[in-house]
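Researcher: Going back to the complex we discussed earlier. I've cleaned up the inputs and rechecked each line, so this should be the final set. Can you rerun the prediction on the complete assembly and write out the structure?
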Amino acid sequence: MSNFLACNAPVEDGASSSSTTIKQGDCVIVYEGINSMKAVYITPKGRFENRFGVFRHQSWVGKPFGSKVIADGGGKGWVYLLRPTPELWTQVLRHRTQILYLADISMVVMQLDLRPGSVVLESGTGSGSLTHSLVRAVAPTGHVHTFEFHAGRVEDAAAEFQQHGLTQLVTVKQRDIMENGFPDTLHGQADAVFLDLPGPWKVVASAAACLRPNGRFCGFSPCIEQVQRTSEALSANGFTDILTYECLLREYEVHRETLTTTVRLADMPAAKRQRPNNRAAAQQAAEATAAAAAEAAVAEAEKADAEAGAEEKGEAEAKGEEKAEATAAEGEARAEAAEVEAGAAAGGAEGKAKEEEKDEGPMPPPKRVSLLPACVQTVSCRPSLEARGHTGYLIFARKFVCG
Amino acid sequence: MAADGVICDGDHLVLDVNGEKLSFVQKLKANGTMRVGKYTVSTAPLIGAPFGALFEVTADGKSLQRVLLPPADEITRITDTERDNSNLFDRNTENQKLTQEQIEELKKSGKAGSEIVDLLCSNSATFEKKTEFAQDKYKRRKAKKYITYLTPRKPTARMISEAYYDKCPERVWNLRHDTLAVMLSLGNVAAGAKVLVVEHCLGLVTAAAVERLGGQGAVCATQLDERAAPLDAVRLMNLDPQQRSVLFTAYASSLLKDKAAVERCEGLAAMTTAVPAAAPATIAAAAVTGASEAAGEQAAQADDGKQQAEEAAGAGGEEAKSADAAEEAMEVDAATAASGSAAGPDAGAGAGPSAGGQQQERQPRGGDGRDGGGGGYGSFMPRPEALCSVLVSGFDCCLLAHPKMHPTALLDAIWPLLAPSATFAVYSPWAQPLAEALAHLQGSRNAVMLQLQESWLRPHQVLPARTHPHMTCSGSGGYLLSGIKVVPPEATPLAAALVQHLKSASGGAAAGGSGAGPAVEAKEAAGGEGEGQGDGEGRGRWQVSLWSGQDFGSWCLCLHVHCSR
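Model: Rerun complete. Updated structure for the full complex:
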């Protein structure tokens, strides 16, 4: 009795929308946050407790899936109640083994050509993560035969399938498939076979016996050596179209950022106007040609001396120009001394510098301001810093269609 | 019994040539011919053969020969070689003693492809000096050139997707088969699901959804504007009537209006009467899907009078004000009739026949338009019970792949049609619009489990001692935004006041909140039903802070009008 599959829902006769509301026995995914979800089975006396409060199951019954519910007893905490899907289940299930995730699961279901009515064999069952997706794909008329050699996992999986109302669609059995292969009763019965075992190549012959012509095979292996051996076994056992893929989903983080569009150029505090600045100016000037040096110096003067008078700027510029030829000035320790020296030496350049300044100096800043607002709000995304690098290789093959 | 059945006369096929190239054959004729690579061959041998059977083009290049046993792979199993390429000199044509003319003659004389390959190897000056691995590669390359293998495949959504992606990825917006697979998973598409599809990828997404439903549930290929929902891929599949029955096309606008009508009646507990009445509205709208623009204009003129008359009669005249486009005018008529009939038995008696009359009157015209591109499938009219079901309880899956439409706008438009806890997946070849839509959904608190992901796929060559990833692969499979719709409860006065306060204080930025929930913040109370008019305002406000583009104001206004309709 559960609500895991849309096709399991009682037929809606017009007004009734029983499958969209929560009822006793349902599995509900309680969503606290994207990394904090829990599966809860609704019982008459059940209570759900978390750090935000206490919730009685009874108060959830009759609410539509997707509702936000507030904690009982005047608490302020709340959670969302979501309808279970195989994807959500993959995120909340209790790990009994390493499990397959969305990217691989989707690829497996697609490449195995599963559709309602297909018969698919799976080994091993593991935590039942993939099994739920397989069942969803073949329901309501198909069947999943899943095998697991660990008795405890078989029991747990069977209980889960029971609880999720999937017993008509999935059979879970304890069997060492690597040792014994699939049961003879399944020979020629399967449309698709999926193997997630340490040695899939040992089962390829049995898989070939079970698959109908044109049936699909998939093996999942973390290591390339396993892939190598499975691939060889496949081509030796009448399989064709053998393809190996690696697939991943790269998660992106979305951020809202406010980016400043005006470049505000702060003045250097007067007390710090010392040698480093001179040195920088000198380097800049030394690199430039004589003509470029004048321009660079204008910019430099703007940056450094916005509040300073026109004459002072002229001096600074002259200083820059002068430094290009007189590297000796670099040795000078005090800024004042440098300025004085530069001022004295640059007599000729001063006039020209002033002229340039009148023309160009005040112009650029107002333009910048008028073009853009002070800041823009942007939405941007980037791949998450921590990403999955490898899950496993997926080998797909098709059983050759003989006579 | 083969897993995919046998090929019948009139079937569609995907042809796989040498495992390299995929092409389509539509409506296979038993006595016809088809192109396979550079050959034209008779189709007769295909009929009655299982899907997936292997054929070889015969030496004369005119017919197909069934291959009943897997051809030897002729792969070298050694893992080590003593030769190297230190004495190998590439002199192009000089190394091959056979001239092009001689090879052509061999082909004409009816020599089998494999024999030509052997001759080429024995006449190559360098073949013996090559490493065993290089010999393998040489033989495989030559075999592909002189032997043509053909596999007719069943046109499943996967095969069609792979074929489209191989042939012309731009036409499906680079939607790769693995991305489509993830999309179907995230959408929770399965038998019994009610799937809303808006796409612009040649019907690929629709086709995949229809295939997954297996005849149970509903897939609505939704049309937004004058352009019909694409169904090309659906028409390439060999669907039986049962499988096909789940698919219908409808205008988003008429679905929204019918939905609104149904909801209005819910309070009056008159739903059972409302639904059959609402159905004709969409049917009538769907009937004009194929109508030309000129026809639409005519209809608009004709309908204007009716519309005014009904407005005057006061039978749900509120919808009339949103009628400006031709199609809309018609739908509003129908919707008005529907809501009228729902509102009271008297009005219903008057309006009902008029809606029925419209339907009959337009049927032939709509039918013409559809049959033109229908490929014999006829039109995909919604069945009343399917329509009833999606309108009453909403769609529980939503797949959007219409990259030219901003996902924020698209999601906003169809949001009221989705049921609470509906799973949705939006595809785009670009990350940025999806990121903006994600930020919007986060801000409006209408959805949880929001994820933006890019799919990545790398094929590997697996051969003894020569295993490595392919030298080239697809750069990106595109991006997917996914989530689950949720409905916040009614805002308490306190929460509303808090929201008001926070809005004025911080302009709608999310606040850490009352510390109650995991991500409690101000917006929670603004949502109402997550689709009401009040929420439209909230979202509009959000976008003000989201975008600062010049045309934003007008865009936002459009959205607002849409929401409050």
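Model: Worth noting: Chain A has 13 helices and 14 strands.
Researcher: Good, that matches what I expected from the previous run.
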